[in-house]
């Protein structure tokens, strides 16, 4: 049944400088190394898909994704169907030369209870806890001259109820299987068992070296650059020997510190020497020199700098492999977080793969490492102590880890709080996410007004380990600008963590491969399940930019000055570069590419972290002919920080000029049966004689289905008069509404002016629309106009304005002003379609839009009114039950296509937008009661 295979042999360590290599730890992989590299084992599952028969499975993997067992989400109750177990069998050989060494079998992660046998004998006690590395010494169980049989029984549900509750009842997908790599570890008989290091920012090194040796005489330390270059003058200052642990103090002068902005790493080499001075075992450990302090009622300090955590929660997950990931995926995820200008990540709600922490070390992210608990009941103390020990021992040396989290949301066993210090040489602080504990307050999902922070916990360091809980297109970027303005400037706020990084949509092998987020439970991501960037990705990128550029507008008297703040913690602003591009864009009927009229470097000031100043953008000759100014900031590694865009030309300047009357283009009008018909060249327009709205558009004999507008939103005034007048150069249709007197008693102006709609038709068919309507001083409804254009008739849109993603009132940042285009899609963010950017929604700062029809020519509209929003259709409603409290289902007005002066905000999974800050409030300020609002558009068919 099983096969015998020699597998990958790995020498553990980054390099070897010796001609005769000293003994080092070796690995022999029995499984693959991740989702993209697996090995076939024999397999049997007790229940569900493909059960009750032996077959094969790829390892590592989650067996549901391999077509076995049953899928279930964490809120499900377990029954016999879900309590499946799996039996694994694999045969292997080991080299004869290993016979005198110590051999261990290592499992990086098994969900959930694992019973391991080698050649029919138990390797050790059953391991409980899915996300924790465990190992057994198996030297005495191996055949060195023949075949060895590995058998593993994996129970998806644990026999320990507290483990079962923590890992099986949580708010995430539940899987079974050997989901992380399995390998044999070979160490010499006299060896270093493990090391724990504490490398401080001043170059001090403390290390605990755990040994198993009767021959060891001393330890020798060496420090290297990652490329193998020795670091000189590392001095051993003290060595204290115990039976199985030697404690070392050393000093490395002139080292560079580790931080997320400059994640400098070194290799610390430990040589275990015998009485003759021969190396009996050599171990390399990657380290970073940095100091972490949590100062009471003050903040979190790294290398003596008080930091703000700009973080996100992240699950170890991939749609086609569940919890089985890869180093490549870890790199991809960390790079995306860095691209959003994040500096921190929380391991929710369990320790990640080792390679993810390695990548956080090398690319630079602060990490909160967490053990898995879930609400109450708490984790049993006995098994909890084992889990804490396994977590800290595995992860202790990572410089990226700055805090430990003792579980999640009331699942804390307080008897375990002090266990972290037993195993952590760095003595990092422990937090309780969603709790006021010791020096910190990590409350979850508070509303904006809670940032007044006037409660009895005002002296605690505040950093929510979950806030702005994303759901579909809500949260994340929506509301973040309001929150962050306060959080950045509050001294005792140490930042926060968004929930969460990616939609956890799993491929259902039992449902023809559909992506399943379990309704609204797992559609929480800033990115889609395969890393598709949603709009909030770019909003976060701008708000959390370490180069903070103050908002401004460019007008004719633009002086070139921009105010800037250095929001780095460790980097001077002059380490960054900035480029100014004066852009001119193509028209609706041209290619999308923009023209750079002028490009030049901007000199950024040498601002230290936290300092404010300004920079100057030189204005080239003819700068006012540009459509926009783009400013791109780049970090010292050449990565874009953000590109800000500023319209230069006013929208009324982007106006098509109508053609005059010719023999081919003549104007004719008629009024019959309350219908006003205007013929202009090959265009025929029909308007209502009752309300002045456009009823029908014909181009030749082709119907273009733009109609029923303009409908003035919220307008109830009656029509007073409709007049038709004209000449050979234009025909005007003017609708005046009755004057109304709805001002409050305290208003100084009692009578409002009449609202007005004016159509102007030109001989070449250009159709101009001018609308005046009341600008109520404070309004909760949307102000603007709408038209009908059937969704089924829309194929494509191209526009000059902010994009490419839609906006909400409380998510305006992250866009760029230029020409964009995309094909129609019916994406429901995080739920269906997964095609981004979404086609439907509100788009800001419209100058023009070309709407291509399906089976019709569509139209182009030019907007001459500044700060106008373009509404393109209404997003599809969420599936039944997806948004039961309508927090992430923003309002859209009647009609299909709208031109608006204000738009709706969006909430989060747990909050309505009005609790998320000023931008989420429904009230809008439009000036004096007697000031009409103006909207002017030109349509070209």
From TrEMBL:
<keyword id="KW-0378">Hydrolase</keyword>
<dbReference type="InterPro" id="IPR011013">
    <property type="entry name" value="Gal_mutarotase_sf_dom"/>
</dbReference>
<feature type="domain" description="Glycosyl hydrolases family 2 sugar binding">
    <location>
        <begin position="53"/>
        <end position="188"/>
    </location>
</feature>
<dbReference type="InterPro" id="IPR006101">
    <property type="entry name" value="Glyco_hydro_2"/>
</dbReference>
<dbReference type="Pfam" id="PF02836">
    <property type="entry name" value="Glyco_hydro_2_C"/>
</dbReference>
<protein>
    <recommendedName>
        <fullName>beta-galactosidase</fullName>
        <ecNumber>3.2.1.23</ecNumber>
    </recommendedName>
</protein>
<comment type="subunit">
    <text>Monomer.</text>
</comment>
<dbReference type="InterPro" id="IPR036156">
    <property type="entry name" value="Beta-gal/glucu_dom_sf"/>
</dbReference>
<dbReference type="Pfam" id="PF02837">
    <property type="entry name" value="Glyco_hydro_2_N"/>
</dbReference>
<dbReference type="InterPro" id="IPR006104">
    <property type="entry name" value="Glyco_hydro_2_N"/>
</dbReference>
<feature type="domain" description="Glycoside hydrolase family 2 catalytic">
    <location>
        <begin position="297"/>
        <end position="512"/>
    </location>
</feature>
<keyword id="KW-0106">Calcium</keyword>
<dbReference type="InterPro" id="IPR013783">
    <property type="entry name" value="Ig-like_fold"/>
</dbReference>
<feature type="domain" description="Glycoside hydrolase family 2 immunoglobulin-like beta-sandwich">
    <location>
        <begin position="196"/>
        <end position="290"/>
    </location>
</feature>
<dbReference type="InterPro" id="IPR017853">
    <property type="entry name" value="GH"/>
</dbReference>
<dbReference type="GO" id="GO:0009341">
    <property type="term" value="C:beta-galactosidase complex"/>
</dbReference>
<dbReference type="GO" id="GO:0030246">
    <property type="term" value="F:carbohydrate binding"/>
</dbReference>
<dbReference type="InterPro" id="IPR014718">
    <property type="entry name" value="GH-type_carb-bd"/>
</dbReference>
<dbReference type="GO" id="GO:0005990">
    <property type="term" value="P:lactose catabolic process"/>
</dbReference>
<dbReference type="InterPro" id="IPR008979">
    <property type="entry name" value="Galactose-bd-like_sf"/>
</dbReference>
<keyword id="KW-0326">Glycosidase</keyword>
<comment type="similarity">
    <text>Belongs to the glycosyl hydrolase 2 family.</text>
</comment>
<dbReference type="InterPro" id="IPR006102">
    <property type="entry name" value="Ig-like_GH2"/>
</dbReference>
<dbReference type="Pfam" id="PF00703">
    <property type="entry name" value="Glyco_hydro_2"/>
</dbReference>
<dbReference type="InterPro" id="IPR006103">
    <property type="entry name" value="Glyco_hydro_2_cat"/>
</dbReference>
<dbReference type="GO" id="GO:0004565">
    <property type="term" value="F:beta-galactosidase activity"/>
</dbReference>
<dbReference type="InterPro" id="IPR050347">
    <property type="entry name" value="Bact_Beta-galactosidase"/>
</dbReference>
<feature type="region of interest" description="Disordered">
    <location>
        <begin position="652"/>
        <end position="671"/>
    </location>
</feature>
